[in-house]
């Protein structure tokens, strides 16, 4: 499916995955541009996941595409268990969990087979 033929919600989900895979500086630039906290990156993904789940129920997205998102969701859930310590600018730049999340998001983008 070419970019022109791809539905807006597919592009938006891919954009969210792209932002999660950006390096720390770019992620922080994005967060600051929105004037929000670091956790907005996770909140954007949560919105994308819920949209994907609804699209699967309506037959507009494959289950395989949804399953590509689940490792990202699991990683973010694990990060959230640590409380606020992983949700700071410093953590985004230095915490191994963020490096792992970026790699998982890159793979999810590649696996997001609509």
Detailed description of the structure:
With 114 residues, the chain is mostly helical. It is 74% helix and 0% strand. It has helices at 8-21, 24-34, 40-57, 63-81, 89-94, 96-111. The chain is globular and about 40 Å long.
Briefly, what is this?
This protein has helices at 8-21, 24-34, 40-57, 63-81, 89-94, 96-111. With 114 residues, it is an all-alpha fold. The chain is globular.
Radius of gyration over alpha carbons?
Answer: 14 Å
Total count of helical runs of at least 4 residues? 6
Helix-strand topology string: HHHHHH
Q: How much strand?
A: under 5%
Mean pLDDT metric: 94
Low-confidence stretches: none
Measure the end-to-end span.
8 Å
Most strands sheet: none
| Oligomeric description of these chains | single chain
Shape: globular
Structural class: mainly alpha
Structure summary, number of beta strands: 0
Helix content: over 70%
Layout of secondary structure:
Layout: H1 8-21, H2 24-34, H3 40-57, H4 63-81, H5 89-94, H6 96-111
Helix pairs in contact: 1-3, 1-6, 3-4, 4-6
Protein traits:
114 residues, mainly alpha
